[in-house]
Amino acid sequence: MSLKKEVERFILSEDYKPMVLKEIYKRFKAKTREKRRKIREVVKKLEKEGKIFRDSKGRYRKLGEDLKVGTIEFTRSGYVAFVITDEFEEIAVPVEDTKYAMHKDRVVVEIVGTWRGLPRGRVVRVLERGLKRVVGVFDHKGTFGFVVPDDPKIAYDFYVAPENIDGAKPNQKVIAEILKYPSPGRNPEARVVKVLGDLDDPSIDLPSVIVKHDLPEPGEFPEEVLKEANAIPSRVRKKDLVGRKDMRDRVIVTIDGEDAKDFDDAISVEKLPNGNYLLGVHIADVSHYVKEGSALDQEAFRRGTSVYLIDTVIPMLPFRLSNGICSLVEGKDRLTMSVEMEIDREGRVVKYDVFPSVIRSKKRMIYERVNEFLEDPSSVKEYEPFSELIHNAVELAEILREARRKRGAIIDIESDEVKVVLDENGQVVDIVPRKRGIAERLIEEFMIRANETIAEIFDHAGLPFMYRVHEEPDPETIFQLKNYLEAMGIRAKFSHNIHPGMLQKLLEKVKDHPLRSSVERLLVRSMKRAMYSAVNIGHFGLASYAYTHFTSPIRRYPDLVVHRLLKLYLEQNGYFTPEQIDKFSKVLPKIAKHCSRRERVADEAEWDLIAMKKVEYISRHIGEVFDVVVTNITKFGLFVEIPEKSISGLVHISTLDDYYYYDESKNMLIGRRKGRIFRLGDVLKAKVVRADKIRGEIDFELVEKEEKEG
C-alpha cells in the first residue's frame, strides 16, 4: 500500500486520536523531507474534502456525529445564522456562537443541542473565507473611512485606511476588497477598488448585485472558453447529421417571451386518426457542442445556470452558443434531442420515442401574440398558417393540466412575479404584474410532461440519474399556514399525511380572496425548495413520482448532464457498464449539490435587483396614497402590500391613531380606546412616507377618511 493511502486510512480509522502534524510524522517515521511532504499532502486533501479539520491547538480532528463542515449563512435579522452542510443539513448557530465567521464562510461547527427542531451548533473554526469583496456605502470618519455593506447579512463595517480610500466620497457606493477579516478586538479591513457612483444613481444597482452575489460580469468569459466557443462552427454541417432523424419538414415552432434570445425548446402537436395527440418536444442539443471536461463545460458547471437580472443576462454559455448555433432560431437547421409522446384523452402517455434529431423551426412565436391570436385570429395574420397546431396545443395542454389536477398536483399558484419597465437611462418607469396566459401555460404543461417522461425512463431502468426533487413540507410549517388561514377566517382541514391535492383545494378556496397572493406566498414558503438530487424522492408540488430538468440545456447545467446521460443510454441500448455506474454514482450527487447552490444564488440576485427597483419606483411616489392589503400583523405594526405592484412595506404601530395591543392567538391589532381592529386581508388606504434603498425598507402611514376625501 502506498504511503498516501496508508496515512489516509490511519487518519480516517476508528483508532485515530487527534494529533498534531509532528505526531503524524512520528507515527510514520517520516524523517525525510519528501516523506513529510507526502503526509502533508494527504492531510491537506482530507482537510479540503471536509473530512478532518485543524482545531485551535493545531490537532487534526475527524468530523463525526458532533462535528460538521458547511457554509454559514447569516439572516437579515442578525440573531441567528444557519450552517448548510454538503448534505444540505441545516444547523442553527446563534450569533454569539459564530466566532468571527462571516456570511458565506466555510466553517466547522460542533453540535451542542437543538433549536426549534434543528440541531444547534457553535462555530469552532473558519476553514475558508467565502467573501473576497464587499459592496457598500462609503463613510468618512476623520482621516480614515468605513464601508458599510449593502448586505444586512454581513454584520461588520470595514475599516478603510487613508491610503486605501481611492478618492471615495461619503455616501457613494463602492466595491471594496477585503484585506483583513474580523478577529478578537479588531474590525475587518478593506480597500476601495472601485467607486460605483452616488446612491441615487440607478446605474449602480446592477454592479452592486453582481459583486454582492459574486457573479461574473455580463458577457465576460475566460479566454480559453471563448477560444473553444469561437472554434465551434456557426452552422450545422453534413457530418453532424449522422445518426439523426431528419425532422426539418415537420411543422415545428418555438413559443417564448418577446425579449428571449436563447430558444431551448420547440414543439410540434398533431392529432392522430385514433383521437390521441402526438406531442413532440424538441430540445437544443447543447451536449453535441459542449464536451464533458472541456473549458466550456467546466465554466458552465462553475456558473451552474444563466442569471436573469431584469434587462441583463449573465449567460451560462457564451452568446455564440446560447444565442447562436444552439438556439432554435426560425428558418435555421439546428441539432436537437426530441421526445415524441402519444397522449390519450385522459392525459396518459401511451407510447413515446426519444432520439437525436435535426429540426428547422417554422416560426418564432411570442406568448403575447399567441394569446392575442386565440382571442381574435384576424389580429395576428402571420400565425394563421399555424392555426391547427395552436388549437391542437391548447386542447392537449388542457387535457394534461386536468390530468395533473386529478392526481393532486398544485397547479393554481399564480406567480407574483413583476415586470420592471425601465426607460433608456435605466430609470424605473413602472412595475407591472407578469400575467401568464394560455400560451405560457401550454408550454409549461408540455415541458413538465417531457421532463417526467425522461425521468421515468431512468427511474424504471434503475440507472444513476439527475432528478429534480421536491420534498413534502414539514408538519410544523403547515400548522403555521393553518393558523394564518384561521386568522383570515378560512377554515382549513389538514390531515397528518400531507398531500399536494390538499393544498390545491385550499388555493381553490381562496381564489377570489384579497389575500390570495399572500396565501400563495405563505404556501410556497411553507414548502421546501425544489432542488437537484441523484436520489429520486419524487416532486411534491407537481405530484410527480419522477421528475427532471431536460428542457433548458442552454441555461441550466443539470439539463446538459441529463442530455449526456440520455445519449449514453440510447447509444448503449439502455445499459450502463459497471464502470459508468460507479463513475456517475460518485459524480452526480456532487453536481446536484453544486447546481442547487448556484440556482439559489441566481434566485437571490434576481430578487435583490427587483427589490431595489421597487424601492426606487416607490421613492418617486412619496406622499402618494395607494390601496393596500394587510399581509401580516406583528406587535410593532402592519405589513401591507400594494397588490398590483407586489410592493410591501410597514405601517409602524407608533403611527396609528390609538394605543394598539397585539392579540397573538387571533393575529390582530386591537385599539384600546376606540376598539378598532386590524385583521389580515383588510383593504386600507395608505400613504408612502419613506423609502430606503440601502436597507430595502418602505414605510407607509394609514390615511384617514378626511384626508382620503381631500
From TrEMBL:
Reaction(s) catalysed (UniProt annotation): Exonucleolytic cleavage in the 3'- to 5'-direction to yield nucleoside 5'-phosphates
Keyword Nuclease: yes
Ribosomal protein listed as a keyword: no
Pfam families: CSD2, OB_RNB, RNB, S1
MF GO annotations: exoribonuclease II activity; RNA binding
EC number(s) given by UniProt: 3.1.13.1
Cellular localization per UniProt: Cytoplasm
GO BP field: mRNA catabolic process
InterPro entries xrefs: CSD, CSD2, NA-bd_OB-fold, RNase_B_OB_dom, RNase_II/R, RNase_II/R_CS, RNase_II/RNase_R, RNase_R
Keywords, comma-separated and alphabetical: Cytoplasm, Exonuclease, Hydrolase, Nuclease, RNA-binding
Gene Ontology, cellular component aspect: cytosol
Entry superkingdom: Bacteria
Domain S1 motif residue range list: 623-703
Main location: cytoplasm
Role: 3'-5' exoribonuclease that releases 5'-nucleoside monophosphates and is involved in maturation of structured RNAs.
Family indicated by similarity: Belongs to the RNR ribonuclease family. RNase R subfamily.
Name of the protein: Ribonuclease R
Native source species: Thermotoga neapolitana (strain ATCC 49049 / DSM 4359 / NBRC 107923 / NS-E)
Lineage of producing organism: Bacteria, Thermotogati, Thermotogota, Thermotogae, Thermotogales
